[in-house]
Design a protein that fits this description.
CATH topology of the largest domain: Rossmann fold
Number of helices: 17
Number of domains: 3
Helix content: 25-40%
Distance between the termini: 60 Å
């Protein structure tokens, strides 16, 4: 490497330091396969960086990664930023039109992709001026665009790298240089291109490393897309910073697959979205209690409920391999009923709150802090300041704004959006409403754009009502909207559950059963909800809502529109 010492707040410095310190230790690989050591991982990053430079990629160029998780994804990303180029991770779930928009806007010099994604780029020849490399070594039988397999590309890179006796030359990369441009998959409109520097990402990873006692060699099972900042910072950079080993699931983590992987890998840490825990709670925890009259009665009493939940918590620990010490939960709000269960079950979870624009973590933990309030997102992480703007005198709820080294540089070529989100003083408007309690915990009430102001002036936070609806074991998801001055809820039921409950009944009887369930739930919840939050009608929705990468409903698609069930 060139003789100039890298700044400590670059991704390059973090990787160099870890790969030097943990050279022979396992670093990264697919679950249930032999991982690369830190030394092997480092050599591949450097060799690929040199090769990309020879292919014409230079500092400041954009290189896209449109692919599912793998250790090759990590090698590609770190090789790109090694040479001062800017990585553009693209969420693999995005439709073709969004992929076209991103790649056309970015004008990428190279693209890393996979078989599952390659069809999305067939019509994009003009936006691809450099090599297309398949991380899974896919070669199409009918070659519409020329591709190189990652194995061949890397073999050539390694051969040249090992032959060259000189230290490779890389441009100087500073902490304030851009590392990534990430497109948000927001709940409130079109995607914005967030510009994050090396320091934004490393500062967030360093801060996150203080939230738990992370030991070198600990196993981290990765199930969320690396192209999302939540998994990238917390599930990729953080474990590498600490000398841990990352194992990629490689498949959609259904409960059966997750159990098999955990049984083999026995992970120390997993980062998940609430949906994963909520599914396990509804499908594996609640049925055990609902089927036993004795257990249901015991769960009404605090002491006996805690004993039962602890036993279930032990089974849950066994499900995750028996060595789990950190289940990070973020990306969306966790249902309060599920959190109460996890707390009483003494399950090692940690709620986090963040956004792409803050690289992403704003608040969370620290792990084991007894002053964390249930329903909160824990304390602001080290180095991040939180300020509540224009708090309501009665509730203390106002807009959450933050300041810290993790705050983005702005939105790519969008000064108007940047100025409306990022103040001249460096404070970021999150667009979320919340408050800080007396113990210093941050509570998020909901998105400011989602708040429904009723005719009497009262504010309704639809997310709070949806949590109550979603707690019913026959509900998958719901959306609360305002229609002509009244609240209505649309509910997507768990049809598998409904089928079990109505086995042997006619189609009309099953419809009648579901209608009764919806109306019974409406009346039950209305008796518990404040007057302003009560629902006038509840409707069945017959297909899932369209969601973001972290499974938040894209509300803007439904607000103000009729939803056909």
């Amino acid at each position: 490497m060139n003789s100039v010492v890298e700044v400590g707040m670059t991704l390059n410095y973090v990787i160099d330091a870890s790969c030097s310190r943990f050279k022979d230790a396992p670093a990264i690989g697919m679950a249930m396969e032999t991982p690369l050591t830190y030394g092997e991982f480092h050599e591949r990053i450097l060799a690929l960086g040199v090769h990309l430079q020879k292919e014409g990629v230079s500092k400041g160029d954009h290189v896209a990664i449109l692919a599912e998780n793998s250790h090759n994804w990590g090698i590609a990303y770190l090789a790109v930023v090694r040479i001062g180029a800017i990585a553009v991770p693209v969420l693999p779930d995005l439709p073709e039109s969004d992929v076209h928009h991103i790649l056309n806007e970015m004008q990428v010099k190279a693209l890393f992709t996979t078989q599952k994604q390659i069809e999305k780029i067939y019509e994009l020849k003009s936006a691809l001026s450099g090599p297309v490399i398949t991380l899974d070594d896919y070669t199409a039988e009918i070659r519409i665009i020329p591709v190189s397999t990652f194995s061949n590309y890397l073999d050539d890179a390694l051969a040249a790298f090992r032959e060259d006796k000189e230290d490779p030359y890389f441009p100087i990369v500073g902490e304030n240089d851009l590392a990534s441009i990430l497109y948000t998959s927001g709940t409130s409109g079109y995607s914005k291109a967030v510009m994050l520097t090396h320091k934004n990402l490393t500062a967030n990873a360093y801060a996150a490393s203080s939230l738990a006692d992370i030991q070198p060699g600990s196993v981290w099972l990765s199930i969320l897309p690396m192209s999302h900042t939540y998994e990238f910072t917390c599930g990729f950079i953080l474990p590498l910073l600490c000398g841990a080993r990352i194992a990629y699931a490689g498949k959609t983590p259904t409960p059966a697959i997750l159990q098999k992987l955990c049984d083999y890998e026995k992970p120390y840490a997993i980062f998940a979205v609430p949906l994963v825990l909520e599914k396990i709670y509804k499908k594996r925890v609640m049925p055990q209690i609902e089927k036993s009259i004795a257990l249901k009665l015991m769960c009404k009493v605090g002491v006996s409920r805690k004993l039962i939940f602890r036993k279930i918590g032990q089974k849950l620990q066994a499900f995750f391999g028996g060595k789990l010490e950190l289940m990070g939960i973020g990306g969306a709000a966790l249902n309060p009923d599920v959190e109460k269960f996890l707390n009483e079950a003494q399950f090692p979870y940690l709620i986090g709150y963040g956004m792409t624009e803050s690289a992403p973590l704003i608040a969370g933990g620290p792990l084991g802090d007894k002053t964390i309030t249930i329903g909160s997102t824990g304390k602001p992480i080290p180095g991040v300041e939180v300020k509540i703007i224009d708090p309501d005198p009665a509730t203390g709820i106002g807009e959450i704004t933050i300041c810290g080294p993790n705050v983005m540089q702005g939105y790519f070529e969008d000064d108007e959006a940047t100025e409306s989100t990022l103040g001249a003083d460096g404070w970021l408007s999150t667009g979320d409403l919340g408050y800080v309690d007396k113990k210093g915990n941050l509570h998020v009430s909901g998105r400011s754009k989602n708040v429904i102001v009723m005719a009497n002036g009262e504010n309704v936070y639809p997310e709070a009502v949806e949590h109550k609806i979603n707690a019913y074991n026959w509900v998958v998801e719901s959306l609360v909207v305002e229609n002509n001055g009244q609240l209505e809820a649309w509910v997507y039921p768990d049809y598998e559950f409904i089928d079990e409950e109505t086995g042997g009944k006619s189609r009309s009887e099953r419809r009648e059963y579901l209608a009764q369930q919806l109306e019974s739930m409406r009346k039950e919840l209305n008796s518990e909800l404040p007057k302003a939050s009560r629902m006038a009608k509840v409707f069945e929705r017959r297909e899932p809502f369209i969601k973001t990468a972290t499974h938040k409903i894209k509300r803007y698609l439904y607000n103000g529109h009729a939803m056909v069930g």
